[in-house]
Structures are given as C-alpha cells and as structure tokens.
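Inactive N-acetylated-alpha-linked acidic dipeptidase-like protein 2, Python bivittatus. Tokens?
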Amino acid sequence: MVNMPVCSPIVFAIVSYRDLIQQRGKEDRDVATKLLGQWTSFGLEDVQLINYSVLLDLPSSSPNTVTLSNTGECYYPSGQPCNKETQTHHSQDLLYSYAAYSAKGTLTADVFDVQYGSPEDLLRLKHFTNVSSKIALLKLGRMPLLYKLSLLEEAGFKGALLYADPCNLPKFQNLSNKAFMVSLNGGGDPSTPGYPSVDGSYKQHQPNLTSLLVQTISVTLVRKLFMSLEEAGENEVCQPLRLPSTGERKILTLNVQTQPTYKTISNIVGYLKGATIPDRYVIVGSHHGGLHGYSSEQWAHGTAMMTALIQVFMRKVKKGWRPDRTIIFCSWGGTMFGKIGSYEWAENLRKVLQKNAVAYVSLHDPIKGKGILYSIASPSVQQLATEITKNYKVTCLGTEKCLESNASSIQMEGDSDYFINHLGVPAMQFSYQDSTVLETESFLSEAVFPGYSTLSTKLDSSFSLHESITKLTGEAILQIASKPVLPFNALDIALEVQRSLQDDHQHVDKLLKVAYALRESAELFQSDEMRPANDPNERAPARVRMLNDVLQSLEKSFLVSGVPPGFYR
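Tokens:
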C-alpha cells in the first residue's frame, strides 16, 4: 500500500472549510478566484482559472405558482399561500424552487398520478385514460429524471409536478415542507451541445430542454392539493403516497417562469507533474459554488478536502517526492445546472484526455450521513476501492454500528459523468451515507433542497468523517498515480457484464455465451499478463507501458451511443 503522509489532513480540511464558507452566496468567479489564490500559495504548478460564458436558466423575479382551478386557491411550490408577506419572508427559497431549463408558460389541465413514471406506470395509466396535454404528478427517484420526463413527453403529457415521496426522504431532517431545485440539463452548456463553449463558438439559444412545464413542489403542497391522498395512518412502516383511483380529478393551473441568462462560470485546474510518466493523468474533481445568489455550503466540504490533499501532497513535494503520473486537481463551476464546467473542460480537451486520462477520483458532496462508508467505483477499480477501505479503520458517528460497504458500480453523482460516459475513464468515490440508504440508484441526489446545505457540518462537527474520506481518497490517488502497473482489474469488468446479463431474462443466451468467453479471457489476462504487477523482475519498461495502455483502455471498449436520457452506459 502507498501510505498517506504522516501529517494528518484534518487540520487543513477544517481551516479550508471555514475559509471557503465565507464565500457562500458569491458569484462563481469570486469563489474560483479565491481557490486560485489558495492553490497557488501551496505551490501547485500551472494553476489555471478557465472561464466559460454559458447559458444558465435562473429564477424569474417572482416565484412560480400552482393554482386549484375550482377554488382559485394559489400556492407557492413550498405549499405556502400566494401573498406578498410570504414572498417577502421566504423569497430566496421560493424563487429557487424550480426546474431549470423547463418550458415556460401557463398550463391548465387535469392531474394524473404516474407514481415514479416508469414505463410500467405509464402503460397502466394509458390503458385506462387519455393523458394527452395533461399534468403528471411525478415522484423523484428510482430512475433518472430526464429519462422519466422523456417518457412523459412520448405519452403526450404537457406538464409535470415533481415531488419527493416522504418515504424516500432522509430521516434525519424534515424536508416535507421544502420544495427544491432540479436541472433538466443532461450536461454542459446547452448553447454549445457536444462542443466546448470557448471564444468564437457558435451559440444555439436553447432556453428549454423539454417541451414539458415542470415544477417542483413540496410534500406539504401535494397534501394540500390532494386532500384525499392515500398514505399510512398510525402504522410505523412508511407507506408511499398515492392518489386514490376514484373520485373527482383535480384541475390545476401551473405558472412556470424562469430567466435564461448568459453567465460566466469558472473552473480551477492545477497540475502536480508526474516524475516518470507525466503524460498520464489522474484527475481529481470537486465543485465550487452553489446556485447563483443562493447561500449553499454543501460544495465547500468536498472542495475543502481537495484543498487539504493539495497541501499535504505539496509538503511531500518540497521534501523531494513526486508521483509517477501527473495528478490534475479540478474544481468545477456550474455543477448545479448540469455539470457544465466539467463538460466544457473535457469537451475542449477530449482528444488529449481520451489518450492520456487514467482515472477520475471524485469528491462530490462526500458527507451525506454518518452510518455507512459508501464506495462507488467503475468495475475496473472496484477491487482497489474495496482494498483501500479494508486497510483503514472506518469512522462512523452516532449510536448505529459502523456498517461496511463493498464498492458498488451503481451510477455515480456529480462531475464524473463526462469522463465515464464519453471518455471511458474509470472513476471512484468514497462518501458517508445514512444507514437507511440502500445500495441502489435512488436518484434523489438530483434534487437540491434549500436549507439542506449545512447538514453535513451538523453530522460531522468533529470533522472525523471528513478526515476519513480525505485519507481514503488520498490513498486512492496515490496508488493510481504511483504504482508501476495500474491497480485495475479486468476480471471485475467481465463479472459485471455477466451479472448484468443474468439479471435480464429476455433473449440473452447468446450474449451470456459471449460474456462467459469474456470472463475466461479476463481470467487469463489477470493470471498471465498481470505478472509485472507482482514481480519486479518482469517490469521491463516497454512491457509495463504496453500493459498499462491495455488496462487504461479496458472500459473504453464498453462505451455505447444512444443511451436513454440520464442513464450511464
């Protein structure tokens, strides 16, 4: 194991976090400039501030509203009645309860409960009724939001009320009276789809990324609008909300207005050059800043951990150490609006990154609970993530037992998206989650709740969880950047393919035969070709370079086009 430096990163993380939260509510560029000064002062090489003019969909000057047509009762997304007093006292939360890049306008229509909006949910509904030009009451979660909205468009819906079922919300904070913000942008600047938003780029003005009028609402408002909502009574087991199948159908009027605006977002990118293989990159990513003019602190935790790692690494550099491969530290702007900063940077350097990027290590919102150390990794680095967690004494807080979690390959949050899905770069992340979180794709992270941003500080006031994540992440970076042979596992990719096919019982016999052949080839590769990883006598430079090129390209072989909206390959 490549040991982390003796100096603990916890002090650096605390100081950095307290410094960074002073930047909350400031413009993206202001936060980026602060980071630029910090990283440069630590001695990081070639630190760059890179600006992009991108299309953001910001709130309008007045909150969006939902009105009951038969009574004329008007509500804000949080469930509060429409009046000047409410708007004055809660203006920020009300304005930022919206779906960025939704269609704009007013729609009056019947409301139909589509639950989670799965293909099965919609087929059942369409079998009994005509949903053309109607409004869907849609739950967040289980599948990517963009995929579910595409199904609603196909079915003929014109609007969607989006909420989070109380059974899916975290148990340690009451969010039932909170509406939230989501972005309907799959990634990058909407005005430059598929190409970088650099000076001279042609801009396609696309303020709407869906034909649907989409509005986020709180559980409180759902209950006010649909008084006969079926849910649990005194039973302790949470029962999902569901509209009754009989009774009068509600007619609502949605008023959705937002303000498409070109704004400057900024990335900070700094390099720690490799000593022997400088043309191979280990990319470390977090994000800075929240919503424009919206006081959010959630971003500061991952950025503080990255800043602490930079400080620790640069202290080692001053003592003569360097990694073999180049480490690129990136703090992304515009993440809340659809991972804009990471997409634009990667699109601009696509050819270089396709050839040279080895791995992406994420520090995206790493503290969301205190019960489970949650490791998410691409198949080729799952074994590495598992070994790293086993070699550390895991810290958890509270009365619960500290539950171990093996590395999972479920869909990863945040800015790793482009690197995984467009470049085939393996990615990994360590985070703490609440013990009620299941190892499945919940997709609740697509929602940004107001007032939720300081939760991670309350969960980890001693910063011990921050220290654990920083050490684990640092160990992963060091192993990938410094081991002569990349610590990737080809067999885990073959096993992941085989498991995926075994879960699908429709016409997969031929595919399973191919998967078994892939597994046999991977086993042979692991036992024979991977000997240089364990035997220094076989580490001839040309052989090791060739082997690393193969390992680096493993996941690129599984890139596919035409993936449904919101899904990973």
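The chain has a mean pLDDT of 84.
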